[in-house]
Write a structure and sequence with these properties.
With about 450 residues, the chain is an all-alpha fold. It has 16 helices and 4 strands. A hairpin with a 5-residue loop joins strand 1 and strand 2.
Length: about 450
């Protein structure tokens, strides 16, 4: 992504001299701070979350299957989005622990709105508490047959989240929320110059396309009603609706448009190949959606093989791009490294690395496996087993979590090479650093439940 290497961590003063950008620390407003002190101690939060989860499991066992399906429709997409927020907080905690100046990737204006890992997890904990509480009440009222009360909870939750995103109230890191909402709007209307924040959010949204499609379906179900009606194939929001593939395709369309915009601004032909990569997701979505429009014989004989071929092309192209461009590993096009890993020729790695070399080999192998399983979330016809769909969607969020540190490392090294006056952006590997990066990455995940 050569387009994004011109975002400095400095600002230009009136006399033409570069100065470090002034980033004011985010302080939680009084109400948010009170909520954090009251509810964000890790043992209290974990106990409350476990209690809500037990209520949900027990109540759904007593409820009818159609209400269990409704629970998944309304609450599963929000769970995946919150998981991604927790993982992003873990990424930020890792950067902070290793003193990686990841904020340099963002423009000086955007840096002022970046939250610390602790603040991200505070927000994630409050949102998780709201989600689990609403889900527990919904499941409880469904089990007792109190459908009128059950119908209130998803409506209240979705309305509150929308208001929280849109309204500039002095609550829960207002400036950061408004920055996120503005960046989301920029991503959804890709007609402006693409910033690093735009690119990163759009790339993350492609990993959340399944959750966004499910969120679109849940919203459709709430608006079309009845809220507690069974989810049938023939409904406006059912499996055969055009709404589902549209929701899956939108993040890829946004990212494709960004690539074309960058090509227009810079003339970098590589962006056309990047746009082509995102376009390979559309045949996967289209052929999968056709399952509900054609006969079973036509699906098995014609469209299913086309879907499989398109899925393999998309996964292969995306994996190649992850390694060669996003991670700059040159596993396919670089010269032989002379090293071997698991009996195979090891890909060429840079001399300076944030992690130990085994970590990169693990990331390449796990990325390949997760890329191949990723086709599951692109396919509307594979959505009937809710637990399996949830597992695969969370795995894709985890793949993106692993992708972020190396992508940031590559960008920072480009910036450090182009702008040496920025100073040390990535600390040199510590002695015995072969295991240091792996331990710190694991530690950042463990800290994700800390206040």
């Amino acid at each position: 992504m050569d387009r994004y290497t011109d975002n400095p961590f400095t600002s230009v003063s009136s006399n033409g001299q570069e100065e470090p950008s002034q980033k004011s620390p985010h302080k939680a407003p009084p109400l948010a701070a009170l909520a954090c002190r009251f509810s964000l101690q890790a043992p209290v939060f974990c106990a409350g979350a476990a209690g809500c989860a037990l209520v949900i499991v027990a109540a759904l066992r007593l409820a009818e299957d159609r209400y269990t399906e409704l629970f998944h429709i309304y609450y599963q997409p929000l769970l995946v989005l919150l998981a991604m927020l927790w993982l992003w907080g873990a990424n930020v905690r890792f950067f902070e622990a290793r003193r990686v100046r990841y904020g340099v990737c963002f423009s000086p204006h955007d840096q002022a709105f970046l939250l610390s890992g602790r603040q991200i997890h505070q927000a994630a904990a409050l949102l998780t508490a709201a989600l689990l509480s609403s889900g527990a009440l919904f499941a409880y009222h469904c089990a007792r047959g109190q459908l009128a009360l059950a119908a209130l909870h998803p409506v209240a939750l979705y309305s509150a989240l929308l208001l929280l995103l849109m309204l500039p109230v002095n609550l829960l890191f207002r400036d950061a929320r408004m920055f996120f909402a503005q960046t989301l709007f920029r991503v959804a209307t890709p007609v402006r110059e693409v910033s690093w924040a735009d690119f990163l959010l759009a790339d993350v949204l492609t990993s959340l396309s399944k959750a966004l499609s499910d969120l679109e379906r849940a919203t459709c179900h709430l608006l079309a009603g009845p809220i507690m009606a069974p989810h049938g194939v023939g409904q406006m929001c059912g499996s055969s609706s055009w709404i589902l593939p549209l929701g899956l395709a939108l993040p890829y369309a946004w990212r494709l448009a960004q690539c074309l915009r960058v090509y227009r601004d810079t003339g970098a032909r590589l962006q056309l190949f990047n746009a082509l990569k995102y376009s390979t997701a559309f045949p996967v979505i289209l052929f999968s959606a056709l399952k509900y429009q054609v006969t079973p014989a036509a699906w098995a004989g014609v469209y299913k093989p086309l879907w499989l071929a398109a899925a393999l092309l998309n996964s292969g192209y995306s994996y190649f791009w992850d390694l060669e461009r996003d991670w700059d590993i040159q596993a396919f096009t670089g010269p032989p490294s002379g090293e071997r890993c698991c009996g195979l020729r090891a890909p060429a790695l840079k001399s300076e690395l944030l992690f130990g070399r085994p970590v990169y080999y693990y990331l390449m192998a796990s990325n390949l496996l997760l890329r191949l399983s990723w086709t599951y979330k692109l396919s509307p016809h594979l959505r009937h087993n809710f637990d399996t769909v949830l597992a695969f969607t969370l795995l894709e969020a985890f793949r993106r979590f692993q992708w972020v540190p190396v992508r940031v490392e590559v960008e920072l090294r480009k910036l450090q090479h182009a702008r040496p006056e920025l100073g040390q952006l990535i600390p040199p590997p510590a002695a015995g650093g072969e295991e240091a990066g792996q331990k710190l990455l694991a530690k950042s995940s463990e800290h994700s439940m800390e206040p």
